[in-house]
Amino acid sequence: MRRAHRSAHRLLWPVLALAVTLGFSLALAWRPPPDPPAAETGK
Q1: Closest CA to 28 of 20, 36, 17
Q2: How many whole angstroms separate alpha carbon 31 and alpha carbon 9?
Q3: How high is the pLDDT of residue 28?
Q4: Which pTM value belongs to this model?
Q5: Predicted confidence (pLDDT) per residue in 1-43, tens digit
Q6: Collapsed DSSP state (helix, strand, coil) of residue 33
Q7: Closest CA to 23 of 13, 33, 31
Q8: d(CA 22, CA 40)
Q9: How much of the chain is in helix, strand and coil states, percent to nearest 5?
Q10: Each residue of 21-43: b (16+ CB within 10 Å) or e?
């Protein structure tokens, strides 16, 4: 493995981890709110 290849991998993994973390956070933040519970009508 050449030095350039190794340095590219050293740069790639933190960027990939940041992208996964950002995607997971945005998926949680942008999901729609839960539906309100249905009102009981049999009282």
Answers
A1: 20
A2: 33
A3: 93
A4: 0.62
A5: 788 888 988 999 999 999 999 999 999 999 888 888 877 765 5
A6: coil
A7: 31
A8: 40
A9: 65, 0, 35
A10: eeeeeeeeeeeeeeeeeeeeeee
Degrees (nearest 5) of the Cα angle 39, 29, 19?
150
- The two tokens of residue 20 are 């996964």
- Own/partner contacts of 10-18, CB < 8 Å, gap of 24 or more, are none
Give the up-direction half-sphere exposure of residue 34: CA atoms within 13 A in the CB hemisphere: 3
Give the amino acid at 9.
H
User: Which amino acid, 15?
Assistant: V
